[in-house]
Amino acid sequence: MAQTLFRTPLHDRHVALGARMVPFAGWEMPVQYAGVIPEHKAVRADAGVFDVSHMGEFEVEGPRASELLQATLSNDLEKIGPGEAQYTLLTNDRGGIIDDLIAYRLDEFRYLLIVNAANREVDFAWLKEREIPGSDLRDVSDEYGLLAVQGPRALERLGLPEAKQFTFAEGQIDGIECMVNRTGYTGEAGCELLVMAEDAPALWDSVLERGAGPCGLGARDTLRLEASLPLHGNDITQETDAISAGLGWCCDPDKEFSGAQELRELKARGPERKLVSFVMEEKAVPRQGMPIEGGGEVTSGTHSPMLDRGIGMGYVPVASAAPDTELAIDVRGNSRRARIVKRPIYKREE
After folding, report:
1. 284 within 8 A of 109, measured Cβ to Cβ
2. Angle CA 198–167–157, to nearest 5
3. C-alpha distance across the termini of the chain, in Å
4. Whole-angstrom distance, CA of residue 296 vs CA of residue 106
């Protein structure tokens, strides 16, 4: 029996625009409208809007909300105040990555967590099991829509002022109340607009009328890969750790959280492998699961619209992980040359 897919508040808008809809993390989502390459280039040159309402939202409040999150999330929430956000990891007892997420400090005793759609149930169960008196965790995902407006002209098109990355504020777009979050997953400027579910279609219409082009999950993936941003389920999983993935920077070494000691020990002795970004030297498109000669594996791969060549990320032994190291990737039985590059893979020339 086929699984019934969830639909975002914008489903009818996507269908009306002729989007190609596909199953993704239990949701029926638009993978493309005009096409991945034009959508990708629109975000790099101007502004695009993505429906990311499938993402999960949790509210954590109470006098001990901070205590609960400090004991379960890798980064130090004391470093942010109300109006600020933080990239962080939810880790298991082995230091494996249950999810990567963003924590927003709404006020002294209240936080919002935005988590990956595929991990919503797992994340909620993990946190709920560890709930302490004085902390209250609620899944409020169904109450909200979330639009990511990304690109060098995104803020200009929305009529919003510049603001620091990883800050947020209440705002309005054409009279529609929303939370304006200076975050994103494309390597570009822009914001993510959290809005009540019933207001999401009107907000979508306003953003399109202001000149942002509709973009699907296909362009979101190629953009994040050019920016060397990891995808949970591909580049990071419960079986991978923050040190090997290059995410040790968001794990506070002086704080106790699930798996903290294991991560400290791993950092001290050094990981056996590292997640690297690479560019193909020969004509080939790398894909997840392809072997890298010498004991590595591709975790994400695509064709880069901006570089017009294959790019990817993967784990390789530490001895082979330095930038400019040549790799050999088994692309459908053929050995193809690639070269490790510094992150991000693509960066606009100033």
Report:
1. no
2. 60
3. 53
4. 42
Strands (E), 108-260: 110-115, 136-139, 144-150, 168-173, 176-181, 190-196, 213-215
Residues 45 and 32: their CA atoms lie apart, in Å, by 18
For the chain, 350 residues long, give each residue's pLDDT as a single digit of tens: 557 999 999 999 999 999 999 999 999 999 999 999 999 999 999 999 999 999 999 999 999 999 999 999 999 999 999 999 999 999 999 999 999 999 999 999 999 999 999 999 999 999 999 999 999 999 999 999 999 999 999 999 999 999 999 999 999 999 999 999 999 999 999 999 999 999 999 999 999 999 999 999 999 999 999 999 999 999 999 999 999 999 999 999 999 999 999 999 999 999 999 999 999 999 999 999 999 999 999 999 999 999 999 999 999 999 999 999 999 999 999 999 999 999 999 998 76
Closest CA to 194 of 166, 222, 171: 171
Between the alpha carbon of residue 196 and those of residues 8, 18, 36, 241, the distances in Å are 12, 25, 28, 35
Q: Check: CB of residue 203 under 8 Å from CB of residue 178.
A: yes
Helices (H), the chain: 11-16, 36-45, 65-72, 120-129, 154-158, 200-209, 217-226, 260-269
Amino acid of residue 35: G
The sign of the torsion formed by the CA atoms of 123, 60, 200, 45 equals negative
Answer positive or negative: Cα dihedral of 4, 10, 16, 18: negative
